[in-house]
Amino acid sequence: MKKFFIQLILLVVLTFLFLEYALKPENFSAFLGGFDGGTPSETQTQVKIASTTITVDVADTKAKRAKGLGGRTSLDPNSGMLFIFDSPAKQRFWMKGLQFPLDIIFISNNRIVDIMPNIQPPMEGQIDSELPIYTPKTESDMVLEVNGGFVSSHNIHIGDTIEVQTISELPAD
């Protein structure tokens, strides 16, 4: 009888632990098509460079920065990814998993300090140790990745200033 109660208690504890784990969406977000368990987005972030407005996804955590645009097959026109860093440094990038050309814009104190145009995706089957590392000439605290050719077609240059805006998508009450 004592053995039965121990087994029953063990079963209850294991069931509780399983349910505690299974009911947290972040524990299986890979199966939810990107759902992150948070509230639906009520804002979008835009970067303005002169008269050009770019809608961006923000990579402001180590995990988001590590993933970057890897795995995506394309970017919409006038869109990109803005990497935000805690402190200025010579931010190094590689194109692991990238499937389309990119322009990389390095930014410090809201001013463009370097541009690497038309970076090509890696060759199919290229191993990680052979991927080029892209390092700017100077330190930056933000990096903007946009479609290859975007910089030249929008006349963007080193020295241009940028403005990051968060826009509410909900109508005002």
From TrEMBL:
Pfam families: DUF192. Gene3D superfamilies: Protein of unknown function DUF192. InterPro entries: DUF192, Saro_0823-like_sf. This is DUF192 domain-containing protein. It comes from Candidatus Daviesbacteria bacterium RIFCSPHIGHO2_02_FULL_43_12.
